[in-house]
Every structure is written in structure tokens, then in C-alpha cells.
Amino acid sequence: MALASGVRFAERALLRPWALLRGTTLGRTEPAAGGGGDGARRFGSQRVLVEPDAASGVAVMKLRNPPINALSLELLTELVISLEKLENDKTFRGVILTSDCPRVFCAGLDLTEICGRNPAHCAEYWKAMQELWLRTYLSSLVLVAAINGACPAGGCIIALSCDCRVLADNPKYRIGLNETLLGIIAPFWLKDTYVNTIGHRASEQALQLGSLFPPAEALQVGLVDQVVPEDQVQSTALSEMARWLAVPEPGSSQVGPIFFRSRAPADQEHDAKGHRRPPAEAARRRHPELCQLRLQRLHPEVAAGVLGEAPTEERLRAVLPARVLAKPILVGTVALEDSSPVFAHLKLLRALCFAHLPRRP
Ligand SMILES: CCCC/C=C\CC(=O)SCCNC(=O)CCNC(=O)[C@H](O)C(C)(C)COP(=O)(O)OP(=O)(O)OC[C@H]1O[C@@H](n2cnc3c(N)ncnc32)[C@H](O)[C@@H]1OP(=O)(O)O
């Protein structure tokens, strides 16, 4: 009997994972401040407020776990559920992630979730953190981080998983991966993301020293894309979002995260002998349907290039139609950093295609 009711509870929890959360009221819908129609209804949970705008297809998602938005298990879970909900609703193409707590975007891992807790709890907690990472990093939505406060460690991880980062110009709002100073070693996927964002040497220094960058330095090193006065963070994030959404099927499909973001944790798989698989192979094993889908959806001439061997600019120029290359293009900087030919190729393709591919029927 107890077993049966336990199973029923587990089933219910699987169907409605938020039911496990303490004090959570996910799915509640209420009119947004100043809003009227359907496009201005907001929903969310206790710790995540979602303000959707159906007309623009953009939702603003606010972290609301005062005082410092520490990533508690509940906040992680609610973030994942809210993102999933938006991803499943085809009305939405972009999400702006920001904080509802003054002066802090997100303080990172909730240290009370790992200090003095038993291994099972730590494992559950860490799994939730990775789940959030996967959900954001491989999201089909365009994500823009509107960083309106301090953004250390896990906060920076969330920001790094977005497509674009706008930081408020306040010297107190520092951003970076400082976990080494706490004795926490960054996992390889986090290191890889740092490297992908600010380059190898800068990452090596910043990770080892646990650097937190003030806005000007964060901009200089490439950790954020824009630094703006605090009262312009939201509007700038919206403008950035408009830029990304103006591109046909931005980020999400033709040449989306699976291309650029081949180094998500799941990609780092090892073969039976313990040898690390090349990232491209690992990604294909993990997401065969996505890889295939996306290759098929590419412009035919580009797909032909993908299937070719040499990921050189010359070869791409040869297979890409002239109209695609009509405007000046960014190449080279994008293609160089990955040792895998396939992904170097895809990165280069993305750089080329992102602005120039004609809309697919
Ligand atoms: C394998 C792991 C991969 C690594 C991934 C992630 C690693 C991490 O995220 S580890 C967490 C690292 N986070 C930090 O180092 C941030 C530490 N906090 C701060 O720097 C400041 O608190 C912050 C700038 C965010 C805000 O400053 P203030 O506004 O001045 O607030 P307080 O410092 O007074 O803090 C208020 C209150 O919150 C407690 N606190 C702060 N950070 C955390 C945290 N990460 N987890 C839990 N609790 C935290 C702080 O102790 C204060 O508590 P009280 O004293 O009880 O009021």
C-alpha cells in the first residue's frame, strides 16, 4: 500500500515536478502591471516571475529569490520549468533574463545547499544546476541576459549560457567565475564556455585567480557585450533581442546552439576505452535528431559544404552562393579556436550564414 501510494506520488511528481516545490504556485496567471490583453499576462512561480509579451514573442523572466538570488534547489527547478513552458509555447522566440532583486543579478550557487548537506542532496542539487545549464545553453529560444546587479560564479554561468549579455555600468556589479577562491573547481564544460567567450589565456588567468570583472573590464575582455547606464539595461536588452530576432530563425534552428555550443557537458563523452570522443561525434551521439534536422534545414549549397571535408574559408566561399557573401563577413576569428574540423566548419558556417542566409520556405 505504502509502495503503491509512493509510486502514485512519484508519477504525480513526474507529471507536475513543481508539485515537489515548497510554497510554489507555478502556473498562476495575473495581469502584468499596466497590461491589458493576453500579450501582457504574466505568470510564474514564487521565485521566477515571467512577463510575456505575445505580440513581440519576447518574455522577460525575473529571478526573485531575495535577498541575493542564490540558486537554491527551488529556484533552479522553477527556472527550468518556466523556460520549458516558454519553449513549448511557440508564441515565444526570445527571453530576457534579469533580476527582481536590487543590486544582485544572481549570487551563484546557494552555498547552504552544499555545505553540510548529505551526498544525496548535493547530487540532487548539482543535477538541478546542470539541468538549468542544459536548458539555457541549448535553448531554442534567444536568451539575453540583462545583468542589473552583481553576477558572480553561478550567476555568471547563467549569463554565459545566454546569447548576449548587457551589464549595468556600476563598479559594484562585478561579473566572473570566482569559485576557485571558494575552493570549488570549475567543471570542464564551464571552463570550455569561458574559453569560448573570452579566449584561452584570459580564461586561464581569470579562472585560476577567481577574477571578478568590473563592467569596463568585463566589456574589454569580452565577457559582456554591452555596458550601459543602469536605467537602460532593460531597454538595451530589448534592442539586442530585436537584433537577434530580426535574423531569420535566429539561433534556434538553422545554425543554432547545437552548432556553436558543441561543448555542452553531455558532449564530453568518452568511449569504452575511456578516450574522449571528438566533440562532433559526441554531439551527434547525444543529439542525432537535432544534428540531422539542422543539417537538413540548411540552405542546400551550404549543406553540401557541411558534408564536404575541408573546413576552409576558400571551400566555403566556393560552395556558398554569391548573394550570401554579398556583404562583408566575419570569418577567421570564429573558426579558429576549435580543434574539431566539423565544428570549426559549422562555426564558420554560422558566422557566414547568420547574417546572410536567405529565409527558407
Ligand atoms: C562545481 C561547481 C561549479 C561552480 C559553479 C558555481 C559556483 C558558485 O556559484 S559558488 C557561489 C559563489 N558566490 C559568491 O561567491 C557570491 C558571494 N556573495 C557575494 O559576493 C555577495 O553576497 C553579493 C555581491 C552577491 C551581494 O552582496 P550584498 O548585497 O552586500 O549582500 P551580503 O553579502 O550581505 O549577503 C546577504 C546574505 O546572503 C548570504 N549569501 C551571499 N552569497 C551567498 C551564497 N552564494 N549562498 C548562500 N548565501 C549567500 C550572505 O551570507 C548574507 O547572509 P546573512 O549574513 O545571513 O544576511
TrEMBL record:
UniProt subcellular location: Mitochondrion matrix
Q: Which reaction does it catalyse?
A: (2E)-tetradecenoyl-CoA = (3Z)-tetradecenoyl-CoA; (3Z)-hexenoyl-CoA = (2E)-hexenoyl-CoA; (3Z)-decenoyl-CoA = (2E)-decenoyl-CoA; a (3E)-enoyl-CoA = a 4-saturated (2E)-enoyl-CoA
Question: For this protein, what is the EC number?
Answer: 5.3.3.8
Give the first-level EC class, as a single word. Answer: isomerase
An example molecular function term from Gene Ontology annotations? delta(3)-delta(2)-enoyl-CoA isomerase activity
Pathway in which this enzyme or protein is active:
Lipid metabolism; fatty acid beta-oxidation
Q: Where is the signal peptide?
A: none
* Main location per the UniProt record: mitochondrion
In this entry, which stretches build a coiled coil?
none
> Which parts of the sequence are annotated with region: Disordered?
265-285
> Which superkingdom?
Eukaryota
**Keyword Acetylation carried by entry:** yes
| Full protein name | Enoyl-CoA delta isomerase 1, mitochondrial
UniProt keyword terms in alphabetical order: Acetylation, Fatty acid metabolism, Isomerase, Lipid metabolism, Mitochondrion, Transit peptide
